[in-house]
Every structure is written in structure tokens, then in C-alpha cells.
Amino acid sequence: MRWTSEQRAFAVEAYFSNNHSYVAVQRAFRTHFGIKPRGPVTDRKSIVLWVENFRTTGSVVKKSSGRQRTVTTPENVEAVRQSILRSPRRSARKHAVALDISNRSMRRILHAHLHFHPYKMVVSDEAHFYLSSCRVGVIGPYFFEEDNHAVTVNSQRYVIMFENFFEPALEEMHLGNVWFQQDGATAHTARASMTDLRAKFPGRLISLRGDIPWAAHSPDLTPCDFFYGDTSRQRFLNIAPQTCFS
């Protein structure tokens, strides 16, 4: 509760006139200001603070230490600018430690004074690998896009891809009885998707809820494709990009 200056002054006077008794101060406080028996009164901690302020400053109100110091001076702003230009890859936190500036002040200088903003890299786990040197037995690739923008694969889009792209290409290969394997993704194993797949591959469907259960984390049926995708991914991740465009 916020107490007025009058209430604070009365509590200090009562403290000295009642032999430094906090209980006596609370009783006198309640009586003087007409506070009900269950109403709030000042606690011992507040009385101690007011007495200390009075002894130190001659006032029951804590005085301000003066104008608040700020680190966003022109000198510090320039120091931050030079530090960023020298080491643009160093984090703002490390720059703050090097310049003996709090992290909050560092970010205020960067945003409000220097108008510097970090680049935020969006990392996606999706990757496309395509072997074009040999197309024997390879169908695809197929990209799920609408208006030249990638879209989320759902059951409807999966069925459209299967009927309009995969099935015609498979028929052109004249392979006869073919086994089909897929993972347990929701779009792959939805009711509409499974209905089409069972009709095309009766008794020859390797899938979650298929004729033969698909084992979790199992590789593709084509070892070469599986090996190349993993190897290319590792080589790509080992190359550190030098620019945001890279």
C-alpha cells in the first residue's frame, strides 16, 4: 500500500515518542487515522525504512540520487558502431561485454541510434536432391507447388500427384507387378490416399496400415538414392555460407 507523507511523518514521530516500539506505533497509527480493526496499517519494515530515511536525509521520503546516468552517449554510440564494423559476426552480447555495456543498453544503441538490425536466417530441414545423370527407373522429381510457391503436402494433393503424375509415368515403364513403399506421414496414410494406393497395388503395399508394415527409419528401396541424398546433405552443411545470399 502507498502511504502519504503525513502518515510516514506520524509513524516516525510515534516511533521516537513510544520508546522505539513498533507495536505502539501501529496502534497509534490506527487510532490517529481512524483505521478499522481489520484495516491495513504500516508494517515494521516500512517504519524502519522511514526512520532510516529521516536519520540520513532529514526526510521520511527517500530522495533521488540525482539525474539517472545513461550510457547512450555519443561516445558510446560511436564506440559501438566501430566495434560492430570491426567484428560484424560477433554477437551483440559479446560486443557488450567487450565495451563494458549492459546487453540491454547495447541493443538500444544498435536499434534506436545506429538503426542496425540482425539478419535472421530461416533454416529449413527440407532438401531436394536430384540425380539427372541416369533416369532409368526414376520417376520425378515432383514439387508440391501452387502459383510457383511451395505448399504443404496433404492427402488431397498427394492423391492428385499420384493419379496425374506418378501413375501415368509408372504405366509407361511396363513393369508389371510393382511393390509400393511409403513412410507413415499423415498425408500418405490418410483414408483417401490409402484407398487409391490399395486399388493400384493390391497386396503389394508397404506402408503404415498397409499389407506389410513400414519399419520406422527404414531406408528407401533404392540404396543409391538414399546414399547420395545423405552424402550430398553432409557436404552441403560443411560449406559455411559467406553472405546472406549464399
Description:
This protein is mainly α and 246 residues long. It folds into 3 domains: 5-57; 74-113; 145-237, no CATH class. Helices cover 48% and strands 3% of the residues. The chain has 10 helices and 4 strands; from the N terminus they run ααααααββαβααβα. The protein has helices at 5-17, 22-32, 44-57, 74-86, 92-99, 103-113, 155-172, 186-189, 191-200, 223-237; strands at residues 145-146, 149-150, 180-181, 205-206. The strands form 2 sheets. Strands 1-2 form a two-stranded antiparallel sheet. Strand 1 (145-146) and strand 2 form a beta hairpin. Helix 1 crosses helix 2 and helix 1 (5-17) crosses helix 3. It is elongated and about 110 Å long. The mean pLDDT is 82. InterPro entries: DUF4817, Homeodomain-like_sf, RNaseH_sf. Residues 4-60 form the DUF4817 domain. This is DUF4817 domain-containing protein. It is found in: Nucleus. One of its GO terms (molecular function) is nucleic acid binding.
